[in-house]
Design a protein that fits this description.
With 62 residues, the protein is α+β, with helices and mostly antiparallel strands. Helix content is 29%, strand content 27%. A three-stranded antiparallel beta sheet has the order 2-1-3, with no helix packed on it. The radius of gyration is 11 Å and the shape is globular.
């Protein structure tokens, strides 16, 4: 089973460039304090890197 990552949106996209808002939507986030568990893939890692200042990221085991 692939590793997974729990991401929680902690920052607002208001006043940020549109690509950051679109990146949050691509990760399945659109409101503060929403949490998603995503697969740990290079694509998702790249998305997380673009908006890491708006997220809290932790690895999920199992």
């Amino acid at each position: 089973m692939a590793d997974r990552i729990r991401i929680t949106q902690t920052g607002s996209p208001i006043g940020r460039p549109s690509y950051q808002r679109k990146t949050l939507v691509a990760l399945g986030l659109n409101k503060l304090h929403r949490t998603r568990i995503v697969e740990d893939t290079p694509n998702n890692r790249g998305r997380i890197e673009k908006v890491k200042h708006l997220l809290d990221v932790e690895r999920v085991s199992g």
